[in-house]
Design brief:
37% strand, four-stranded antiparallel beta sheet, 3 domains, mainly beta, five-stranded mixed beta sheet, 349 residues, elongated, 1 helix, single chain
C-alpha cells in the first residue's frame, strides 16, 4: 500500500516539475519572438510622459538605442512626441504636428492650462520599416528621392489608374524615333527629328525645326525651317507662327434686320443693311478694344434669313468701321445704296 502511494506521489511531482519547466520555457521564448523594440510611451508620474527605451534605424542606416526619457508636455497645448530620423535618431517634441518625413511617431498628448494631461494617444503605426521614410508631399503625388528623403512631385500625380501631368515641369525623357506599328505613341516631345510609325491618329508631335504639330494621319516627315510637316493639320512654330488647314469660329452670325444686328458672341458672320442706310451696328461681345475688324461685301444670299436680294454697294466712299464698344458692338459707315447690301465680318483679337 505504501509502495503504491509512493509511486503515485513521484508521478505527481514529476508532472508538476514538467509544468514549471514549460512555464519557464514560455517565459524565456515568447519575449524573444514577440518583443516590440519600437519606442513607446506611458503615463506614470503626474503631468509627465515616460518614453520607454527602444531601438530604431535612422535614414542614414545603423541601429540606435534610445534611452528612456521623461517628457513634460507643453501646458495648454497638444504635444507631439516622436523620434527624429533625419540624422542620428533622437526623441523630440513639438506643438505644431508631426513632421512630413523621416520620423517615427510615438504619441500625442494634450495638457490643460494647469499641466494636467487630459488626453493621451498612442500614435505608433501598426507596422514600420526601419530606415524607411514617411511619404512626402500630398496625397496622389509621385514620390522621389530628395537628398535621401521622400518628397512628392506636385506636377505628377496618379489615382492608381491614370497619370496626370499638371505642373510646369519639362518632360525630358527622349522617346524612340521609330516605334512599332502596334505601339501607338501619343506624344513625342523634345526630339530633334520627326516621330515615326505612330499607330493612332489625332496625335501631337514636336517635330523637326521646332514645329509643334497636330496630325490626323502619319507625318510625312518633310518639315523645314519655314514650313511644317505637310500632313500636319495645325502647326505652331516656336516663334508663335501658326499654320492650319482651315480656320473656323465657334459660332457664325447670320442676320437680316434693321440695326443693330444681334450677333451674340460671334466673331464672324453675315448681316444685311437695309436700303439707303449709311450707318449700321452689329452687337457682338467678341469685340475687344483692340480688335481688328474686316468687312467683305457680297451679292449672294448664302444662309441669310428672308432670302434678301443683295446688291453691290455704291462706292462713293470707302466703308469704314466708325465705332467700337468693347464687349458690346461695332458700327460701320457706308455710302447710301438703293437696295439691300450684304456684308461678311470677321473679328480678330
Amino acid at each position: 500500500m505504501h509502495q503504491r502511494l509512493g509511486r503515485k506521489g513521484g508521478a505527481a511531482v514529476r508532472k508538476e516539475m514538467l509544468k514549471r519547466l514549460l512555464l519557464i520555457f514560455l517565459l524565456l521564448v515568447v519575449p524573444c519572438i514577440a518583443q516590440d523594440l519600437r519606442p513607446s510611451a506611458y503615463l506614470g508620474k503626474p503631468g509627465v510622459v515616460t518614453v520607454r527605451a527602444g531601438k530604431v534605424q535612422g535614414s542614414a542606416g545603423g541601429v540606435t538605442a534610445l534611452a528612456a526619457q521623461d517628457i513634460t508636455p507643453t501646458v495648454n497645448a497638444t504635444t507631439y512626441i516622436y523620434v527624429d530620423l533625419s540624422s542620428t535618431p533622437i526623441i523630440t517634441t513639438n506643438t505644431s504636428g508631426f513632421p512630413t518625413s523621416n520620423y517615427f511617431p510615438i504619441c500625442t498628448v494634450i495638457a490643460d492650462i494647469n499641466g494636467t494631461i487630459t488626453s493621451f494617444t498612442d500614435s505608433r503605426p501598426d507596422y514600420f520599416m526601419a530606415g524607411g521614410s514617411t511619404p512626402g508631399g500630398s496625397n496622389t503625388q509621385f514620390q522621389y528621392n530628395n537628398n535621401g528623403v521622400l518628397a512628392g512631385a506636385s506636377g505628377l500625380t496618379t489615382n492608381g489608374t491614370s497619370v496626370g501631368f499638371n505642373g510646369n515641369g519639362t518632360i525630358t525623357s527622349t522617346p524612340p524615333f521609330s516605334a512599332a506599328a502596334n505601339v501607338g505613341w501619343k506624344f513625342c516631345l523634345y526630339t530633334n527629328q520627326a516621330c515615326q510609325g505612330v499607330a493612332t491618329t489625332t496625335d501631337v508631335f514636336y517635330t523637326a525645326f521646332s514645329w509643334f504639330s497636330f496630325f490626323a494621319s502619319l507625318p510625312a516627315n518633310n518639315a523645314s525651317g519655314s514650313t511644317p510637316d505637310s500632313n500636319a493639320v495645325v502647326s505652331i512654330k516656336n516663334d508663335g507662327t501658326i499654320f492650319a488647314k482651315a480656320y473656323s469660329t465657334a459660332t457664325n452670325c447670320s442676320v437680316n434686320s434693321a440695326s443693330p444686328a444681334a450677333c451674340s458672341a460671334a466673331a464672324a458672320g453675315s448681316f444685311v443693311v437695309p436700303t439707303t442706310t449709311t450707318s449700321y451696328t452689329v452687337n457682338t461681345t467678341a469685340v475687344h478694344a483692340a480688335s481688328r475688324i474686316f468687312l467683305f461685301p457680297h451679292t449672294d444670299t448664302r444662309d441669310l434669313p428672308g432670302t434678301p436680294t443683295c446688291v453691290a454697294p455704291a462706292i462713293t466712299a470707302e466703308p469704314v468701321v466708325s465705332a467700337t464698344v468693347a464687349a458690346t458692338s461695332f458700327t460701320i459707315t457706308i455710302a447710301s445704296t438703293t437696295g439691300q447690301t450684304c456684308w461678311d465680318y470677321w473679328i480678330v483679337n
